[in-house]
Design brief:
The chain has helices at residues 3-13, 65-70, 82-99, 101-104, 123-135, 154-158, 166-171, 177-180, 201-205, 208-220, 238-243, 260-269, and strands spanning 18-19, 29-30, 60-61, 111-116, 141-146, 182-184, 189-192, 224-229, 248-254, 275-281, 286-289, 292-295. By secondary structure, the protein is α/β, with parallel strands linked by helices. The protein has one domain: P-loop containing nucleotide triphosphate hydrolases (Rossmann fold, 3-Layer(aba) Sandwich). The chain has an eight-stranded mixed sheet with strand order 3-6-7-5-8-4-9-10, sandwiched between helices. A two-stranded antiparallel sheet has the order 1-2. Helix 1 (3-13) runs parallel beside helix 12 and helix 3 (82-99) crosses helix 5. The longest helix has 18 residues, at 82-99. The two termini are 26 Å apart. Its EC number is 2.7.10.2.
């Protein structure tokens, strides 16, 4: 049994996670502990943050699809690749939770945080591929937000400019949602970059304006799935702050690399979240699922 499996088993015994069915591409564990405080504590009948601000021309950017494919991301020209199939499995419980949010009591279920314990475990790789996979569905739209404001990487990987983004929006109430929203040449995918570096980025992410933003983007656009790529949990406090704003968290774990104590500490920091799922990344072992062998050597190059 690997160090990751030991850690997850120990966390389950402590009541931190509930092990769910194993799939061919990930080990997903869900935990439902306590509910995030009611959204009405942040906004009244009329929101202080108006995302439907005056109309401005759409800013459309072109993703560098060739570079993405060369770097091991989902290939837009190969919908049947193993990686594409694996992310179909990864996204399904997340989408199911969104569709059943009213019955299962998950608050802001359409807001999903992708995080890791330490740098280099593959969270940005997962964030981008998950966003691409969901955006390829006909009835789903995705907003991918780079909330790793200290070391943003999404704009670089997609081949777009890290223009005015989340930090500028949080810093200046004159900056509107439309000012930072970038539509892409994938019709159902939009991007918000991290924006400039800021010495008080942690305070901005924990500000009331950020809480209002999360509530508004969840409530106003219920048909949109919002994916936040966050800083590592144990490196910056920002990830734990962001985890309180979302309905679902995916904790990316580097197989055979992340120590058991690190996994336990990360899981405990997420114990107040409605749903926590773990994604075992970078594993090269083969697992027999329904008579088929799968190996996951492509994950986590970043």
């Amino acid at each position: 049994m690997s160090i990751i499996e030991n850690a997850l088993n120990k966390a389950a015994k402590q009541g931190l996670i509930i092990t769910s069915e194993r799939t061919d591409s990930v080990e997903l564990d869900s935990a439902r502990d306590r509910k995030i405080s009611d959204a009405n504590s942040f906004v009244g009948e009329k929101s202080a943050v108006d995302l439907a601000s005056k109309a401005v021309p759409d800013r459309v950017v072109n993703i560098d699809w060739q570079a993405l494919s060369e770097n091991g991301f989902i290939d837009s020209n190969n919908a049947k690749s193993q990686l594409a199939e694996e992310f179909r499995v990864i996204k399904r419980p997340l989408v199911n939770n969104i569709q059943g949010a009213e019955s299962n009591g998950i608050n802001r279920s359409n807001l999903i945080l992708i995080c890791s314990s330490l740098p280099g475990e593959g969270k940005t790789f997962v964030s981008i591929n998950l966003a691409l996979s969901i955006a390829n569905e006909r009835d789903k739209s995705v907003l991918l937000i780079d909330a790793d404001v200290e070391k943003p990487n999404i704009a670089k990987q997609l081949g777009i400019d890290n223009s005015r983004g989340l930090i500028e929006y949080l810093e200046d109430d004159k900056v509107t949602f439309s000012d930072i929203l970038l539509k892409t040449d994938l019709p159902n995918l939009s991007i918000i970059t991290a924006g400039k570096r800021h010495k008080y980025s942690t305070e901005l992410l924990s500000s009331q304006r950020m809480y209002l933003f999360a509530e508004e983007v969840s409530r106003r656009y219920r048909d949109r799935i919002v994916i936040f790529d966050s800083p590592p949990l144990l490196v910056a406090t920002q990830a734990q702050i962001l985890a309180e704003l979302v309905g679902q968290v995916v904790l990316v774990i580097a197989a055979e690399a992340t120590p058991q104590s690190v996994v336990n500490e990360s899981v405990s920091k997420l114990s107040n979240c409605d749903v926590v799922m773990t994604l075992l990344n970078k594993t090269r072992k083969e697992i027999d699922i329904y008579g088929h062998n799968y190996s996951y050597g492509k994950y986590g190059h970043f």
